[in-house]
Design brief:
mainly alpha, ABC transporter involved in vitamin B12 uptake, BtuC, 12 helices, 83% helix, globular
């Protein structure tokens, strides 16, 4: 099997994740849930440990644990209102990550590529992984399309959305499940420690240039796909880890989005003139 086969599979898998992560990341940015995304990602390691322990599919284990952590967060916020949300997120995030690391360390009969799960190894994706990514991604996008309007209404003004009959609690829980699915799909691409960046950075880069929520979601997906392509190219040429390279490419695109529009036009015009 040639190196080109690995790169093509990696690119196809990365694009599949980016197409889902971009639109979902827009809601994370709008709802200011970046720390929540980190908590869900960190708890994924505990899901991996659970999958190995129970001999079940790791994706199922990750989704089960991340959804449970989300439910526990809601319960603790109701029972312990004197604790701020970011405090609870910090506790759950680091506790679940530590428990996952300890649990995997205690499984002496297993040989686990821990770095691969933490930082991703997109070059190791298989055709079956790609099938899972695209089937899971299509299901996630379909569910997001179904809850798009009520979720957007609850994001803009939750109390007003409730008054208009929007089941805000149910919609928010469905959104949490979608985040869990994306985290499970993205484990091999950028790893559980970096998946939040693929959710947030493309959405943040697209925010400035989008006039509508739908346009921002589409542009975030495009930025994410571009980051995957640029990151894999840099990884191949510079012999750097693929997951972090994709994140660095996304961060570079975000940095470009911060440039004044006039300066950006000048750069683009200069590039076109130089290519003639």
């Amino acid at each position: 099997m040639s190196l080109d086969d690995f790169i093509v599979r990696a690119f196809v898998a990365g694009v599949g994740v980016a197409m889902v992560a971009g639109p979902l990341g827009c809601f994370i940015v709008w709802r200011r849930m970046a720390y929540f995304g980190d908590t869900m990602a960190h708890s994924a390691l505990l899901g991996i440990a659970l999958g190995f322990l129970l001999a079940i599919d790791l994706t199922v284990g990750v989704i089960a644990v991340t959804v449970s952590i989300a439910g526990l967060l809601v319960l603790l916020q109701q029972r312990r209102p004197w604790l701020a949300a970011d405090t609870l997120l910090g506790i759950l995030s680091h506790a679940s990550l530590s428990v996952g690391l300890v649990a995997i360390g205690l499984m002496s009969w297993l040989r686990v590529d821990l770095l691969g799960y933490l930082f991703g190894d997109v070059l190791a994706v298989t055709p079956s992984d790609i099938v899972v990514i695209y089937i899971g991604g299509l299901v996630a996008l379909a569910l997001l399309a179904i809850i798009w309007r009520p979720l957007l209404a609850a994001t803009v003004h939750e109390d007003l959305a409730r008054a208009e009959g929007v089941p805000a609690g149910t919609v928010r829980f469905a959104f949490m499940v979608l985040i869990a699915v994306v985290i499970a799909l993205a484990m091999k691409v950028v790893g559980i420690l970096l998946i939040t960046s693929l959710l947030i950075i493309p959405a943040a880069a697209a925010r400035r240039y989008a006039g509508t929520p739908e346009a921002m979601a589409a542009l975030a997906a495009v930025v994410g796909c571009a980051a995957v392509g640029l990151g894999l190219f840099a990884s191949l040429r510079l012999d750097t880890p693929s997951g972090p390279s994709i994140v660095m490419a996304a961060a570079s695109l975000f940095a470009v989005s911060l440039l004044p529009l006039s300066r950006l036009h000048e750069l683009l015009a200069g590039n076109k003139a130089g290519s003639r």
